[in-house]
Amino acid sequence: MITRFVKMHGCGNDFVIIDARAHPLGLTPPRLTRSRAAAIADRHTGIGCDQFIVLEQADPGADVFMRIRNPDGSEAGACGNATRCVADILFRETGRTDTVIRTISGELPARRLPDGQIEVDMGPVRLDWQDIPLREPADTVRLDLSAGGVDSPAAASMGNPHATFFVPDLDALDIPRIGPTLEHAPIFPERANIGFAQVLDPETIRLRVWERGAGLTLACGSGACAALVNAHRRGLTDRRARVIVDGGTLGIAWRADGHVLMAGPAVTAFHGTIDLDSLPA
Length: 281
Description:
The chain is of the alpha+beta class.
């Protein structure tokens, strides 16, 4: 089955996007196995991506349903950078400057800003322990969790679970070593995205994220949202900040109604085709 795809990225967080709106491709289990997902994401023998995205028809109320797959085949509930990329596709198709994208975690309105960047309403952040979720009741402002010289993260859900560690020197951390341990910490029954944040001033955060199912990426949009929320809860920042990631800068704002807004670029790298039937079963 020869299928078209587009490779896009938001601040270096890259995606293979496959459009299955007109012709469903069955990119769900059992057709989508872990080995097949890994083959698409492999940067040497596949296309290469942090996540791959399947666009499906949406019920009324949204313009498209966005399904998010990690390289290990697991399904993610939210991805802010991918949402901007999908919004850019829809804007080019329709000529509009606003859209609504549905995910398994809810609906994400997006609009193109006058400067060309795309802003996504990532919805209300969830802060209760059972919503993140955690294994047991805990103070989500300061969890009892440590590894590799970091401790006491704050936790939040942006439709997917996040824990943010605040550190004095981001460059001093061996994130590939401690990230997997923290991702799989017993307190997270569904694993978690692990953010490491250095607050530079009340309006600037530097962030790196070990993503659940994907590893260390150049950017994590939902992680940037969680970092700003958690930093404000700790009294470290205002409700609006620039979040500097390895691949660029995102603008994050936590509104008084609980919704988190994220603004940033969406870039098309290239178009291509892939033979899905040639991938391992």
